[in-house]
Amino acid sequence: MLSVGIVGLPNVGKSTLFNAVTAGKANVSSYPFTTIESNVGMVPVPDDRLEELSRILAPEESTPCFIHFTDIAGLMRGASRGEGLGNQFLANIREVDAIIHVARCFHETDVAHVLEDVDASRDVDVVETELLLADLEVMDRAIEKRIRNWKTSPRQYAEEEKRYREYRDKLAAGIPLRTLDLDRQRRQELKGLGLLTGKPVLYVANVSEDEYQLTEHPCVQRIRQSRITLEPEVVVVSARFEMELQQLSPEERLEFMEAMGLSKSGLSVLIEKAYSMLELITFYTVANDKLRAWEIRQGTTAPEAAGVVHSDMEKGFVRAQVVTAEDLIEHGDLQTLHRLGHVRTEGRDYQVNNGDVIEFLFTP
Prior knowledge:
Elements: E1 3-7, H1 14-22, E2 39-44, H2 48-57, E3 61-63, E4 66-71, H3 86-94, E5 98-104, H4 120-152, H5 158-172, H6 184-193, E6 201-206, H7 218-224, E7 234-237, H8 239-246, H9 250-260, H10 266-277, E8 280-287, E9 290-297, H11 302-309, H12 311-315, E10 317-324, H13 325-331, H14 334-340, E11 344-346, E12 356-362
Parallel strand pairs: 1-4, 1-5, 3-9, 5-6, 6-7
Antiparallel strand pairs: 2-4, 8-9, 10-11, 10-12
Helix pairs in contact: 1-8, 2-13, 4-5, 4-7
């Protein structure tokens, strides 16, 4: 299961957002550093296809995909040097696959701000700068450890030296490593080095309940004016409103959203964006009267997808029988799809598509 860390300065609404997303009970107050130990929770990914498949197939069980969310302690200036809860913050964020960066856009006077006033652009830059400085220190140490190898075997390590120095130069220039054109192998390299700025980031403008219905939010533009973020994607959410919304019954929630003119909650948008940000797609299996959604990275092959279900299925993979969720929803059962010739047989090189319904054939 892939994980997303919720980060930001203290008192920007991280724990409130976490409680709304996960229906959790993280401690929330108007004072900084309420969150000291990270809070964790699993969140189902909204999936209209899964709901339709479940309605049509009527399985005994229907299981969605999940994302693991972590509410990480607030970061302050100097975190890269270990000040405040900096060391803990940086250690926790190294463990996640992607980041949701919450910026405060509300002006409630009863909620203390750790800096002099509310300024989303400045606040985002403070956090991003600390991540850059932490990464720069990591790269300096990594280069120091490798430089002897580079000198003794320059040809063997030429490409590695080139990459490491490129990472270091970008960081020194104040450029996050996620802006580089990184393939999967290089992203894994950054993760292995413990670098933070190579992780994908989604920004959340946390607005007040009164401002939630506005069509334009000045705070979004302030976040995009950050010196570091480089035209980021921003989702507008009122964490307090969403937390209160989650306390209603599903029927009351739907009625209230309709009265507010909301077709979809901000949390649903946020979770879907996080899923997309991680470059995930969904495939489905139907076995033993159980329907299940599985998350995989784009470009995953059929044997690799089989391994997500069970390692033995990848080892003994023979072939995959594939239909689309859309065809199954339209025609209602696999027997009809077989008769119509809509069931495909795919081999080891097949890359799974978003929405595939797959039966894996394998030898034990």
